[in-house]
Amino acid sequence: MSGVSERGLGMELRKFRERAGMTCAQVGEVLGWSANTVSRMERGLRRDTRPDEVSALLAGMGVTGNERAMVMRMATGHREQGWWEGTDTNLSDQARTYMAFEAKATNIVDVEPLLVPGLLQTPDYYRALLAACAIDPLDMNHRIARRLGRQVILDRPYASFAFVVSELMLRQPLGGHEVMARQTRRLLKEALRPNVSVLVLPTSVAAHPGLLGAFVVLEFADEPPVVFVEGRQSAMFPENPSEIETYRMAAESLVALALDQERSARVLDDIAEEHERAR
Question: CATH class for domain 78-278?
């Protein structure tokens, strides 16, 4: 079975190969590999790919500078314990890998007990969140533009999305009541999409698996699922299959504990009206 690290590395190598206009066979010539071996590596099925091999492939594809450094960090990552990256520079590497998985997934369950999920955030809400986290104002516009760019993923007809959010969180006026009113209305609007569910975890459900923090479960048509857990300055893709299954079961439990779509919509509408009256 392919590991998350190998799959992320393979996606990056495939991207650079395609950018260089090279076939798998042409890339394989660098190391005397067959086209099938290169294909397996790009799909994360070649677990014994060495860093020196990755370095040679990058040279053959003309990948240099910061891009080469990023891929080499991935090639030397800690695979047995899950892939941790703990600096701002490395976190951006992991963010781009997560977005690659996000773009391929056919089903995503995003559990967010403290925040509105990123794919559903309005610009004003995200700006208020960045300000609360003391992010440099000069960096905010770039982050907001990147966040909005990701949200087009909701337009994919072949993918389904389930967002589990907390009623308590939605009632808190992050950025002020006007910001939260618009944000809650945005959740209602996105929930009208046939492939999107916004499920509210009511305040009456005090004990639930989401108490341990946010996480995302990504499932694919023909590959094992991936779990993403993001912290303040680090993030993790668990590698252990039993740990991944624990997160998957937690996601199923939270979906079951949340209100159904119809009742969630009513609660969202009530919360939006409360914020609108208070602004």
Answer: alpha beta
